[in-house]
Design brief:
By secondary structure, this protein is mainly α. The chain contains 5 helices and no strands.
Amino acid sequence: MGVEAYVKDTLWPILVETVHALVMYPPHKAYTRDVILHEKPDIKPSELAAKLGVPLGEALVILYELKNQIT
């Protein structure tokens, strides 16, 4: 299931709001942008979640926002 499928769900805005409230979200997003995506630009959300040690929901939001350049 791709990120786009999650974005269409009615609960997506709640997930985004919850992820944005996480203290480590900004550094995780910056590290993903600055390091991980340079090493593996096609990383899957499940791989990112495992690499960062974060929930899948946080990885989904990070990848979606970086792909769509939402700050």
